[in-house]
Structures
1.
Amino acid sequence: QALAREQTRLIQSGYLRTYVKWVLAFLLLLVGGALLGGRALVLVRPAVPVQPHEVALAVVILAATLLAVTSRSRLTAVAALGVVGFALALFYVFFNAPDLAMTQFAVETLTVILFVLVLYRLPRFSQLTSLAMRRRDAALAVTVGLLMAALVLTVTASPIETRLTPYFAANSLALAKGRNIVNVILVDFRGLDTIGEITVLAVAAIGVFALIRAGRRRRASADATEATS
């Protein structure tokens, strides 16, 4: 019983930050151990030319990320996260992915607006952790970030044999009458999946609309009650 109580106190604390911390810690242990134990980690990659504007965007992303995690203002943090999202969208533009860039721009704009509308009415940040805990969390976050970067480098450096890429390239125009392979995949080859995603977005939009109408009716009822009283 004592062990169960102690385990529950450490893991099931009721705080989302604690749950995220444990998930990241076990991810670091399992995935990092698998990479190091299997000796699959690729630390050296062929030289890839890097353009000055790409370096500038990377610096902007790092600076905005640092501002987001250290800011004492929610609006500043949201704006910094928006800068990160828009900078990533510019990377899509530079690497000839205009469809992804347009989607990223739209999503980031909507997200920033919604965050500002919601967070504007919340109280200021409160200091809930000590300096030692924040340093520990920062070390965990940086380590997990380095692990993800190493994992991406390892996966992209490994030879991947797939039959889907040549199939889509050969049949997009022949079967679906479309030259944009990405659009053909979304509309034709993955049509049911796209319909599911659109349905989820439509249901979410209906829910938001219902909440807005309910809020307006509640305020109108309250105003009418005050007027009659």
Note: The longest helix spans residues 191-228.
2.
Amino acid sequence: MEQIVRYALKIADKSVLTPLIYDGNYINFLLKYCLNKIIFKLYVIIVDIDLPILAKNKQKFADNGITVVVGDFDFIQTCNDKWLTYNFFIKNKFLIPLPHF
């Protein structure tokens, strides 16, 4: 995994090492980085583990003119749980295969 990360950092146009996702400084670091690098339009998340944290904090970015492309926290929680997702599909009448218990 470390080799993949090093390679990705090497070929990226820009890179930065952030605090870990659950570090109390993660959101403030990202926001400050976006503001310092003049990333005012859009921030797209590509790592699933970031979604709940950024969903909870997307207003903080919006207040600074940055749109974080992330769903609402409750919807992300549903998508991260197979049983909640199944119930969501049933409730909203999606055609899905029946589970085999």
Note: The chain has a mean pLDDT of 85.
